[in-house]
Design goal:
By secondary structure, the chain is mostly helical. The protein has a single domain, classed as MetI-like (MetI-like fold, Orthogonal Bundle). Helices cover about 70% and strands about 5% of the residues. A two-stranded antiparallel sheet has the order 1-2. A hairpin with a 2-residue loop joins strand 1 and strand 2. Helix 3 packs across helix 7 and helix 8 packs antiparallel against helix 9. The longest helix has about 40 residues. The chain is globular and about 75 Å long. The termini are far apart.
Length: about 325
């Protein structure tokens, strides 16, 4: 009996030309996939930025319902550097940013640690704690106005009930400033909590158990194990809160309008006042560019320091 064996055909190998073709096709697909993002960036970032720069170097007025611009060079930026109102708003914003970012990081970390160690109701606590962050700023402003209003506010009613003197929470400089700080902290601490809680759950429990076996106290575990491991998350959420605090506007505008006597006049409120109230469009644009540039410098410096420290540690 004769067995006939069919000839086998060797599988074609991918030659250099085919590999080049595959790479070219992949690059084309990746480029096409990026086109919507590039278009979005051009329309909503690059184009407005170009117009902002053009407005900042111009003296723009409204004549017969038409914007008329005349090139003024860097004069608007010179005004920014010497304007006492802008300098005051920078000081107020700096104090606001330092307090809100610092308090939200500390409180958010404390809440994350407490919920992580909770034995019962930790799921309920986790869900309840994030509620303030999902409320719109307008609703937050109304809620806190009902609490802090000197006349109909619930806080003063509570003080009257216990025979304590009423306070002008929103009518005094220090009271208004600390009130807007409290509102911002209440509104955005849940974001910090959720971010740090997620990062905390990603740390292997074996590291904490090994530290306890070695005789470390809970305080030592917190500051020598937990916080260093949460370092990258703390940096990211801290920078996020930094940007959010610099651009804070809604609650402050609705609660105090920048008053009394400029005590809560953040940079965002000052820019809004220059643009819409005084119709000083070029100067408002120059203020905006200065704020954006300063924010980028601060964020970039923080990321660079973080990268160098991480490189040195490794």
């Amino acid at each position: 009996m004769t067995t006939v064996v069919a000839p086998t055909t060797a599988a074609p190998t991918a030659g250099p030309g085919r590999l080049r073709s595959a790479r070219t096709g992949g690059a084309v697909v990746a480029t096409i996939a990026l086109l919507p993002f590039v278009a979005f960036l051009l329309v909503f970032a690059v184009y407005p930025l170009i117009n902002l720069v053009r407005l900042a170097v111009s003296d723009t007025t409204v004549q017969n319902a038409v914007f008329v611009s005349e090139f003024s060079g860097l004069s608007n930026f010179g005004r920014v550097l010497t304007d006492p109102t802008f300098q005051h708003s920078v000081l107020i914003t700096t104090a606001f940013v330092v307090l809100t970012v610092g308090i939200t990081l500390v409180v958010g970390l404390a809440l994350a640690l407490l919920v992580d160690r909770a034995v019962v109701l930790h799921h309920l606590a986790r869900n309840v704690l994030i509620w303030p962050a999902v409320i719109t700023p307008v609703v937050v402003s109304v809620l806190w106005l009902l609490v802090l209003s000197p006349t109909v506010g619930g806080l003063n009613k509570l003080l009257r009930t216990f025979g304590l003197p009423e306070q002008s929470w929103l009518n005094s400089g220090l009271g208004a400033f600390m009130s807007v700080v409290a509102v911002d902290v209440w509104h955005w601490t849940p974001i910090v909590f959720l971010f740090l809680y997620t990062a905390l759950k990603g740390i292997p429990s074996e590291l904490f158990e090994a530290a306890r076996v070695d005789g470390a106290t809970e305080r030592q575990i917190l500051f020598q194990v937990t916080v260093p491991l949460l370092g990258p998350a703390l940096v990211v959420v801290g920078l996020l809160r930094l940007v959010m605090s610099i651009k804070a506007f809604d609650e402050m505008f609705l609660l105090t309008g920048g008053g009394p006597n400029g005590a809560t006049n953040l940079i965002s409120l000052d820019i809004r006042s220059q643009f819409f109230d005084r119709l000083d469009f070029g100067y408002a644009a120059a203020e905006s560019i200065v704020v954006v540039a300063a924010t980028l410098i601060v964020v970039g410096s923080a990321l660079l320091i973080r990268r160098r420290s991480a490189g040195g540690a490794s």
